[in-house]
């Protein structure tokens, strides 16, 4: 199983400004400290290997979209995609390339929920215009079709949903049920969020497990129910988890905003003995340095509270690929 | 987890001992609730949670502190955290709970 992150930001897409890029270049020049490089490859190697990620790269600014590659795409296994945030545009273009090389034109989407940042990429999803494509949109919500049609009404977008050429169908999934879809087995969990949200647990034929759990608030008043969440995360090879706020923010000024913290995500993964956590749905006001700091603090908290095997704490960024 | 409490200059000083995690969070919460009630009946109307005996605290314990603070605010009781060890100090900083609670190095300062 291979997990590709096409969009990792929460709530709203963001992009680096000229000032932010200039600061990164200035920090890189300082770090180089007068060194010279024979060519671009040598300079690129320095940037990749000797600079910290917040200086040499970026966590990115596209909203939620994660691809789960399972089975054997060369043998016809379909695409599996979680959410349709602005990161979906990049996935769609890459999928067209892969389809031109023989990949099956079937797309199984799994929707955490239908808020704008999780569906805004669909009007720009090029395969939706492919008459040979088959798009199946799985959701815990019965109103998924309404949400997608509504955002393509004329007042919001010039291309109507009815003009799309792909064969598109909607399937409502039920929490507690187990489904066999494409090359994976899928379990569904309802989560606390405005208009509700759903988490998905994907298991491939070799037993590898990836959990997608975003836009989920773990309420103070319902802490006893967290054992169920830990069970959903049980022994997962990767848990992709909403870690938008600090714990203090999530229980004070941002309570009831529908999101979780790095601290609670680590505790839930520890409780389920998960192997790896990807911090996800990054706060749009956070800079790359802020996210890198949150990542370092998260790894430290994991170390301080560890009682069993180590939990590897990754920080998701647009373009990250994780092989399970 | 062990728990003891004492009255000091009109304040309740509550002293948990051990670790607060999934297994002990419920007992920790119950002790906190009782301590807020005790503090509400004292002249100083203050609860000081003495963290010196705690090895560490997971999010369950931290969130129990938030629930206790809400109960304390409603009862007109001030709440402070005192004497965290190095690990607890780090956890309070990482969770940003050091922004939600007054954290002091000594009991006397908290009073």
Automatic annotation (TrEMBL), chain A:
Matching Gene3D superfamilies: Ribonuclease Z/Hydroxyacylglutathione hydrolase-like
Chain ranges of the Metallo-beta-lactamase domain: 62-259
Coiled-coil annotated spans: none
InterPro entries xrefs: Metallo-B-lactamas, RibonucZ/Hydroxyglut_hydro
Protein name: Phosphoribosyl 1,2-cyclic phosphodiesterase
Source organism per UniProt: Blastomonas natatoria
Organism lineage string: Bacteria, Pseudomonadati, Pseudomonadota, Alphaproteobacteria, Sphingomonadales
TrEMBL record, chain B:
Cross-referenced Pfam families: STAS
All copies of domain STAS, residue ranges: 1-111
PROSITE patterns hit by this protein: STAS
MF term (GO), any: anti-sigma factor antagonist activity
Xref: CDD domains: STAS_anti-anti-sigma_factors
Classification via InterPro entries: Anti-sigma_ant, STAS_dom, STAS_dom_sf
Family: Belongs to the anti-sigma-factor antagonist family.
Name of the featured protein: Anti-sigma factor antagonist
